[in-house]
Amino acid sequence: MNNNWLVIRPKRFPFSFRVERRVPYVLLALGVVTLAAMVISVGQGEYSIPPLDVVKTILGIETGNADYGFIVNTLRLPRAIAAFLVGVGLAIAGTITQGITRNPLAAPGIIGVNAGASLAAVTLLILLPAAPVSALPAAAFGGALTVALLIYLLAWQGGSSPVRLILIGIGFKLIASALTNLMITFGEINRVSQALVWLEGSVYGRSWEEVGALLPWLLVFGSLALLMGRELNALNLGDEVARGLGTRVEWRQGLLLLCSVALAGASVATAGAIGFVGLMAPHLGRKLVGASHEGLLPTAAMMGGMIVVLADLLGQLLFAPTEIPCGTITAAVGAPFFIYLLIAIR
Amino acid sequence: MNQPRHSTHRLETKQLTLGYDGAPIILDLNLAIPAGKITVLVGPNGCGKSTLLRGLARLLKPRRGKVYLDGADIFKLSTKAVAKRLGMLPQSPTAPKELTVRDLVAQGRYPHQNWLQQWSKEDEQMVEQALATTGMTQLADRTVDTLSGGQRQRAWLAMALAQDTEILLLDEPTTFLDLAHQMEILDLLDELNERQKRTIVIVLHDLNQACRYADYLVAVREGQVHVQGTPEEVITEETVREVFEVESRIMPDPVAGTPMCIPVGRKGKVSDRA
């Protein structure tokens, strides 16, 4: 009757689910590209390692080179995984904010949520350098949440226009960046240099410790977000229709916003502000699998992971041996994309 | 969905006062919506008819008074329980542009689903039926932004039908449509009411269309029900003057026999004098 949906409806369990038919294939394709890019990325560096040996080393198969284990598993693999996870987090965060605001421009990076996270994280790095790595996501979450709440209070209510939300968000972004600069100007020099590397938006030198600090946030809030696809669909039709369909609008919006802010904050805490991923990934996802969030959320997540992994790989390859932070690459692609969207919605 | 069912649900307001920030828009209003009938709300711009509809749909919390659904305070019922019995289509809703018609219509099943049952056999059947009823089956795989105004309105109506509620509230469903599409939507609602005995409440601007399709007509003026009853009872030269502040002549509609209101206006006065 309908060939566009893949319906899962086992006879024995009271369970049913539907998703756009293309979703599994798209996820598979994105996954393959991401894995390939990760393997090449891990092989890159001063000490280059052939892809096959990278795979062997990761899987624990003997390669005949005793150094590979340390280089791959300890030095480079956490970086590639961090890139993927950060992309996933930013993309889900962006899909949620675009969905609940019904605004194609409302990604956490654009409306200043990421800048709030950066400010809080830089403050922590400079004022309390002794704080453990796991405190960074929590601080970033606090900063992100503060900006998100301010925007909610000032720009969200009363059917505000898409552009108004963006303008107020950009205002907050500038304020947060100014305060971040203040921190950097007056902070102690060694601590500042550490913060600066991080601010560029880079996964350079990320260790398992940072991956470990990010993972719980991603698992908890990422899964919660994936479970709320239907709610996001309803909210995407507007508050009135959503409420008419039986959604508890404020409560669901709040919960989704919390997920978005937590994911954005934790991602920024891990890799600094890698811009425009939360903006681009949902748009590309919608082009591939449509606007239904059951399929869009995982697709955008995978897309975000792929974007950051590819950006990181490009950053390593373009001017090797000099590395460019992956945030610079995503900005170079993302900024024109943002301008295109800005023109398209008018 | 095709077998007739007898609506037992009733929607009533008692001393209902509604408003946003400023002065109340609806004041101490008592109204009972007849079950299984088409009720049309008419009135001048800003009289509060859309606000009243939002209040009836539980979208607006009353300042005072209550809305009763089957005798129970509608605000004491859960959002989902209300959504299973009462569907509401706001004025010119908007859908995300990549959404297909079928995806949109499937949203109507939201109140019948939960985290485990997200797409039951019944959901699928109701969506296909709603598409068929509104004549949208052929267009089901198109995205909503590629449709014409009339098709889009039918798609939204299909969503409301898929919700499978016995009460359906519609806020100016014919706005921005040309005459042919206006008639198409109203005929469809009339058919739904006749075949399935759904209780339908519509806000309409066109008095003659209101008379043609309403079993029960409610004229709202300054937040109060001015007159209510059959179109014949409500539409008189006197009430049109009082409610709309327009001089008019009333005569039977040559097609349906229902009252037809001809506004006099300046041109009319000129020819009167001649």
Overall 3D form of chain B: globular
Poorly predicted regions of chain A: none
The value of Rg of chain B in angstroms is 19 Å
Measured as a percent range, the helix fraction of chain B is 25-40%
Class based on secondary structure composition and strand pairing of chain A? mainly alpha
Percent of residues of chain A in beta strands? under 5%
* Uncertain stretches of 5 or more adjacent residues of chain B: 1-7
Mean pLDDT of chain B: 89
How many alpha or pi helices of chain A? 14
Helix content of chain A: over 70%
Largest interface: A-B, 33 and 45 residues
Large-scale geometry of chain A = globular
Q: What does this protein structure show overall?
A:
The complex is a heterodimer of chains A (346) and B (274). Chain A has 14 helices and 2 strands; from the N terminus they run ββαααααααααααααα. Chain A has helices spanning 23-43, 51-59, 66-101, 113-127, 135-156, 162-186, 189-199, 208-227, 229-235, 239-244, 249-271, 277-289, 293-317, 326-345; strands spanning 5-8, 17-20. The longest helix of chain A has 36 residues, at 66-101. The radius of gyration of chain A is 20 Å and the shape is globular. Chain B has a 6-stranded mixed sheet, sandwiched between helices. In chain B, helix 3 (101-107) runs parallel beside helix 5 (149-162) and helix 4 packs antiparallel against helix 5 (149-162). Chain B has helices spanning 49-56, 79-85, 101-107, 121-133, 149-162, 179-196, 207-213, 231-234, 237-244, 265-273; strands at residues 11-18, 26-33, 38-42, 64-69, 72-73, 86-89, 167-171, 199-203, 216-221, 224-229, 248-252, 259-263. The N and C termini of chain B lie far apart (57 Å). Chain B contains 10 helices and 12 strands. Chain B is globular and about 60 Å long. The A-B interface holds A 1-2, 4-5, 7, 9, 14-18, 102, 227, 230, 233-234, 236-238, 240-241, 243-248, 286-287, 290-292, 294 and B 54, 57-59, 78-84, 87-90, 93-100, 102-104, 106-108, 110-111, 113, 115-121, 123-124, 128, 140-141, 163.
